[in-house]
Structure formats: C-alpha cells, structure tokens
Design brief:
The protein has one domain (2-249): Rossmann fold, CATH 3.40.50.150. 39% of the residues are buried. A hairpin with a 6-residue loop joins β10 and β11 (242-249). The protein is an alpha/beta fold. It is 27% helix and 26% strand. It comes from Nonlabens ponticola.
Length: 250
Amino acid sequence: MKYFKYIFSLIFLSFSLTSCKGQTQTTDSTRSDEQTESSQDYVYKSGSINGIGKWYMGREIAHVMGFQGMEWLERPEREQEENTSILLENMNIQPDDNIADIGAGSGYHVFKMAPQVPEGKIYAVDIQPEMLAAMNYKKEESNIENVELILGSEKSVNLPSNSVDKILMVDVYHEFSFPVAMIASMRKALKKDGEIYLIEYRGEDPQIPIKTIHKMSEAQAVKEFNANGFKLKENIDHLPWQHCMVFVKK
C-alpha cells in the first residue's frame, strides 16, 4: 500500500487537522462526558496480558490496537473473512446520511461508504494521529470531499450534537478505556432516530480465531448499552464472524 510509506512524514507536514471541526468543542464535550463517569463504574484488577487491567460490567477492556497494525486492517482477505459488503448493506445507507465511523483506523470502511452518501458526509473519528494521517493521504489522493477527519479522545468522539444519522463501530468498542463517557458522547451526537451499528467478533463462538478479550457476546453488549440509554433494535447476525448489532436510543 503506497500510502503507508508516507504516514510519518504526513504527520509533521501541513496536516493540522483544520478539517476537524469537532476539535473546537473538545473542552465542552469532554467536560460533559466526564461528568457521566464515576469511579464506581469500573473495577481495577489484573487480568489478560492483552487487557488494561480495567473492567466494566464484568468485561475486561482490551488494549487499543496501535497504528502499527494498520496494514492488517487493509489485508486483502478481509472482505472474505468479514463480508464487509454485506455489513454496509445492513446499514441501509441513504444518499443524504451523515455517518460517523468511530475508531475509523486506516479508513477501510470510510472510503467504501463515502461514495454512497453524495449528499451527506462521513465523519472519520480516531484517537491516533497516525491513523488520521493515513486517511488524509487517501482522501487527498482520491480527491474525496465528503470525508471529515476528527481527532477523538478517550472520553469523547468530538462530534457536534444531533449531527449524525448512523454511527459505525467495527471491532473497536471493546477497546474503549471509558465506555460510559464514550456512549454518552455518541448519544449526544446521534440524531433522535439515529442508529448505532456495533460490530464485534462473536464472543459466544470459541471457533472464531480471535483472542477472547477482542470478542463480545450479544448479552454483554446489550447489558452495557441498556445501562447507558440504548436498546437493541436487532442483531443482523449473518456475518461470518461478527455480530451486527443495531442500537437505538430508548
């Protein structure tokens, strides 16, 4: 992949994230989200080497996959393993949708969705500048105008209130260090009838070749989202390895 060669140089060039309008509200949105956090929400104890030693509702939170694993996100066999085309069909994307990809990584889904929303916008949110740099390279190389890059934080997606019709999270929610604040932040950004598409490797299936800490069961996801103002609309469970859980506001 040609753009991988330019990641580090891009970070120190003129890429100042001026397109990240959400950053202008970081202070206010983060303060609001932090108010939803409580020390009683989490349990701290030793666990998996792949975990951060922090537990939420009985689930150990996993380490974030670093930008060093970017090439794995773009692996040629990903379509076959995850059937990403069917995933996007599940989302029933409309031409004027505003969609946020939270934990967008290298933009694997971002640049598949962008042509489907010619009258809308894709917000590509990530906490790693290296991931944003890679997406910026793709965006400029392809002259794509309806993708907006957003530098998120551990406690906020840094999106405007009532701004998105759909939120996509692919194999990333289980890595949120502060899931309570993050769900609150997404709830604020989501329109009244908006939907969250939570994609996670099925924790119920030991045959899926992914570490247990990087999987999630439907029951666990429902428990966490119910506790934070969402209900499960449906689980479109026909992907090869993953749940496709659709949550809406209660």
